[in-house]
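Appendix B, Record 12. Input sequence as logged:
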Amino acid sequence: MSDIALQTIDVTRDYHVGGTMFAKPRIVHALKGVSTEIERGKTLAIVGESGCGKSTLARIIALIDPPTSGTLLIDGQEIDIAHQRITHEMRGKVQIVFQNPYGSLNPRQKVGDILTEPLKLNTGLSAADRRMRAFDMLTKVGMMPEHYNRYPHMFSGGQRQRIAIARALMLNPSLLVLDEPVSALDLSVQAQILNLLADLQDEFGLTYVFVSHDLSVVRYIADEVMVMYFGEVVEHATRDAIFADPQHDYTKILFAATPRADVASIRARLAAKAAE
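Logged structural output:
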């Protein structure tokens, strides 16, 4: 098996925008030939401003949307959902955790049904086996087996995101796409979820594609960082290299515009304000 868990080669994604009385139809080039790869068991963070194409790329990697052109390989296997049916094997390779834990879980389903549904649709496991796997996964994400029969509205945002992570892991994926998974949570809860993701990655050997605009989160969790700007990759390097010495002008501007939250920076800002 290849050491490369994910590879994209010249991936593009175009959207056709319909015309109006005052504007002609046009094509929006959301992705413009994105090529990248990530080793198995590592975390690739994709950063950039809103509209840069990072979430579009995440949806393509998660097999939700097809690329307009280019090649997507997961575990060395080329996958093109525009021209082939998504098999149970493909669906088991990659899963996604969305940003909003309040909107990503069906409020009419109990937690147990939310967790066992992927197994029911994609495996031949018995109801008893599906139930036992759900109990086990709840425990692994820091929840309790008795939560199995409760509804999503009975939980906090952090707990709901734990449930969403558990659902994503039910099919034993090798690749997990995390689209702003902590941005809707309080800071203390963010830290808990990030620690959980790190523990799960170690336990299951997971590969993460982590989409975020929060550079402090990226600095904590990423092995490599890819910076996108208007649908293009402008810089891709290891986390340490890119934070220590960003090369592209846009990366420098992006980093400079992000407030630093460490104690020394806060003290410096307070001292400067007091001196005004």
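The longest strand covers residues 4-17.
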